[in-house]
Amino acid sequence: MLKIQKSKINLILPVVCCGALIAAGFAIVDTIAMSTYAAVPTLKTITTMQEMTSLVCASSEIGDTNTLTDTRDGETYTVRKHEDGNCWMTQNLRLAGEKTLTPADSDVVSDYTLPASDINGFDESNYYASQMYYAGDETNGAYYSWTAATAGTGDASLTKGDAPSSICPKGWKLPPNSGNGSYTNFTSATGITNNADGSNKIRSAPYNFPYAGNAGRSSLNGVGSNGDYWSRTVYSSSSQGAYRLWFNSSNVYPAYSGYRYLGYSVRCVAVSLGGSDESNVAIEVAPVLTIDATAGMEDVVEANEITTGNISATVTANTAYQVMLSAAQTALRDANIANEEIPASANVTPGTDAWGIATGNTDTPYAAITTSPTVYPATVTDGTEVAQKVHQFGIGVSVSSSLSSGTYSTIVTVTAAAP
């Protein structure tokens, strides 16, 4: 969670009478104007498949959907949080080309190079061949032998259990044969039954499993009448097989067997936090950033001088971060005075109406604040205790003698975010 506190900057400027400066006061009022909490990323707020985590899925609502980009090839996929509490692709994977998948972008334990697309093969001559075929049909997607679908880990040496890798994007996996994240749990939670009604339901929105058929013996088979979707689990009765979801017009079998050499479709699932499909115990700790933002500035404004002060933010964090400033409105204004303001400017000079954030650079000592969070050099960065730092940003303000007296202000927001 990210806690943001905003401090309001109030400038109390000189009262001018008859061209003479008769009184002046200048202060940044130490008042918290707003306190909010930034939400954990959700399915609706991420943009790439690789940003998905169990925490992101857990923070999303059932029925949430989005279109995400696979960074490996730029293809986009619709995804949804289904009724089983997990996030699923609602389109078939169509990753193709001789791409090298890495742990940074894929569900692999080591680098794996996808084979070139080729319809030839997919037969009993090699149960463990790494083969794939993509005909350019975005609805049906690509077809992968089980060894290819498991990124080379489903070879002859794997005779039981789950393959440790898959060609799914990072953060996503092939479904297991049973338990959380499986097709069995998915069909149960969604009310997809083993009959014609269930077949119609699984093929309809929002699930959209097409009759993609399969690749076998150098041709496509069953397109328009069958659906075949790999799991990551070895078939219990034969090391030459693996479990799959299979359906036709009148049946839906979420845990059916299939020969590994055949080319089936791939759907990937991201299991929600709290619903681990593994036997080990694991927790995910969310990054925590807390900002206690205060501002302190007391001085007398002189029309021929630059008045300085600071914004101070104390940050407590268990993760890397950077501190940024932004303003609701860049100019300082008095709501009761029309057509006069102190603009944000890099040119803060005596006798001008301007204010800026100190840079610490003698050639360009100030920078104008913007409405977007921007990194500015901190005047002071002091560690006060473990995982806590004080970031102090200098401010400079200059005013002309002709500026009307009043209270000129804006809201400055101190934001911390991952770099």
What features would you describe in this structure?
The chain contains 4 helices and 28 strands. By secondary structure, it is mostly beta strands. The strands form 8 sheets. Strands 1, 4, 5, 19, 20, 21, 24, 25, 26, 27 and 28 form an 11-stranded mixed sheet that branches. It has a 4-stranded antiparallel sheet with strand order 6-7-8-18, with no helix packed on it. Strands 15-16-17 form a 3-stranded antiparallel sheet. The chain is elongated, with a radius of gyration of 30 Å. It starts with a strand and ends with a strand. Mean pLDDT is about 80; it is low at about 1-40 and about 275-285.
- The number of helical runs is 4
What class, by secondary structure content?
mainly beta
Which segments are poorly predicted (pLDDT under 50) over 5 or more consecutive residues? 1-39, 275-286
What portion of the residues fall into strands of 2 or more residues? Answer: 35-45%
Task: Output the radius of gyration.
Answer: 30 Å
Number of strands: 28
The pLDDT mean sits at: 82
- Termini gap: 16 Å
Described by strand count, sense and barrel closure, the largest sheet is: 11 strands, mixed
Approximate helicity band: under 10%
What spatial form do the alpha-carbon principal axes imply? elongated
Question: How are the SSEs ordered, and which strands pair?
Answer:
Blueprint: E1 2-12, E2 15-17, E3 20-23, E4 26-28, E5 32-38, H1 54-58, E6 65-69, E7 76-81, E8 87-89, E9 100-101, E10 112-113, E11 132-133, E12 143-144, H2 146-149, H3 183-190, H4 196-203, E13 214-216, E14 219-221, E15 227-234, E16 241-247, E17 252-259, E18 269-270, E19 289-299, E20 307-317, E21 322-327, E22 332-333, E23 341-342, E24 354-358, E25 366-367, E26 380-385, E27 388-398, E28 407-417
Parallel strand pairs: 1-19
Antiparallel strand pairs: 1-5, 1-28, 2-3, 4-19, 6-7, 7-8, 8-18, 9-10, 11-12, 13-14, 15-16, 16-17, 19-20, 20-27, 21-28, 22-23, 24-25, 24-27, 26-27
